[in-house]
Amino acid sequence: MTICTQLQQDATYRVFPILQANPDHNQRDIAHRCGMNTGGLNYYLKTHIAKSLATKAALEGLFLQRKLTEYQALQAKIVVLGDEASVDLEDSVYLETYLEATLK
After folding, report:
1. CA 53, 57, 58, 63 torsion-angle sign
2. At residue 5, does pLDDT exceed 60?
3. Predicted TM-score of the model (pTM)
C-alpha cells in the first residue's frame, strides 16, 4: 500500500465522521478538527465528490438499462400472450393498467 493510499484512507476515517456530525461547519473548522490544512481538505473533498458523482451516474445508467431490458421483455411477452389469446391487447385498457402496476 502506498503512502498516498494510506493518507487517503486516514483522511476518510477522520473526515466523514466529522462531516456527518457537523454538516454545517465550514472547511476551515472541519480541517482543523481533522488535523489537516484547509487546502488538503478541499482537494480531498473535490476528488471524492467527483468520484462519488461518477459512480452514481454509472450505477444509474446500469439500473436504467436493466429496467429498459425488463420492459422490452415484458412488452414481448404481452404480444405473445395476446397472439395466443387472439386478442389485440395493445388497445386494451387492461394493458395500460397492467403495465403501470408492473413497472412501479
Report:
1. positive
2. yes
3. 0.48
Residue 30 has a CB neighbour count (10 Å cut-off) of: 19
Q: How many domains does the chain have?
A: 1
Residues 8-28 pLDDT 10s: 667 777 888 888 888 888 989
Q: Which among 70, 91, 71 has a CA at the least distance from the CA of 82?
A: 91
Domain of 72 in residue numbering reads as 3-103
- Assess contact for 29 and 23: CB atoms under 8 A: no
pLDDT of residue 103: 72
Task: Name the residue with cell 422490452.
Answer: 72
Alpha-carbon dihedral of residues 87, 90, 92, 96, nearest 10 degrees?
140
Q: Which runs of consecutive H residues, i.e. helices, occur in 1-104? A: 3-21, 27-34, 38-84, 93-103
